[in-house]
Amino acid sequence: MPEAVIVAAGRSPIGRAFKGSLVNVRPDDLAAQVVSRVLDRVPQLDRTQVDDLMLGCGLPGGEQGFNMGRVVSLLAGLDVPGTTITRYCSSSLQTTRMAFHAIKAGEGDLFVSAGVECVSRFANGTSDMPQCQNPRLQPGNPEGYPDVYIAMGQTAENVADREEISREEMDRFAARSQNRAVQSQNDGFFDREIIPVELPDGSRLGRDDGPRPGTTAEVLGTLKPVFRENGRVTAGNACPLNDGAAAVVVMSDVRARELGIKPLARIVSTGLSALAPEIMGLGPIEASRQALQRAGMSIDDIGVVEINEAFAAQVIPSARGIGLDAFDDRLNPFGGSIALGHPFGMTGARITCTLLNGLRTLDRNIGLETMCVGGGMGMAMILERLD
User: Fold this and answer.
1) Burial of 365 (0-12, 13-18, 19+ CB in 10 A)
2) Catalytic residue among 118, 239, 342, 353, which?
């Protein structure tokens, strides 16, 4: 049975939504730039031989509609099949999982798993209009359905209450994320995964907007709660809204060997979980346990753990739930989404880029990527570094 290996990966810088560096860039144009440049990193490949371009997008409507995966295939000069997948925050981890499964099943040798989200462009339309929600699923419905449409910030407050996560601990974790991201940016760590993109005015962007130098827990402690009057979730201990794109090239080890391509990593296993939407932030726990079990590993075997930082309120208990202290050096060692940002459809592939970069930088072999997912889910993937 063939193994699924990653042979190239890269991402755009991440812009702040509505006021950042990528506000004037369409999502399809941004994704096409990134896909094309990532494929350039593997010159042995004939890009017209890609079996499918699978594009993750959290809210595939407006400029992100029209089966953007196929649109990006054309804009990137591939003219191969393309599909658009949403699983909200894990959309482009889902596409990597689909490539993994197709290769293991012998139904293809070469796939592009990409992800994009440009929240700045939502003014031109989006997929999730509140007036389209099913009345049967509204809070307090007589049929007993959970609140699948609950705001993500409210789920974070629910998790903080349930798991007794203090405001001080959340702010301390958020400051850690910012400080690590700033240091990593200054050290050139992210330069190894970022693909500079051309902007409509002809300039080039090669640096993330998000990391904030000088952030302290004390400063974050002065911010007011956003979602509840006496809550703990603030703009400082949650991820911002963002724009960005990333891509990962996945192929069979057999085909890579034939073409003389040295893989970066092997996909070992994945996991997928469901739980109450009201506490969706704990989704990484069961998903990670599944991935570890399928890999025949424990958390002690993992050299780097990347948990998507939707909210400090959920990263802290999720880490503990898989047997890891939230301030362990293995967890998000270069900062996370609280600092960098969380463009929903991009995040799965972005974290893959950072995980591969981190494993190589720290000279470690096994990495775990995981995140919570809106609607009450979690996803995880384990990679083995090969380069």
Assistant:
1) middle
2) 342
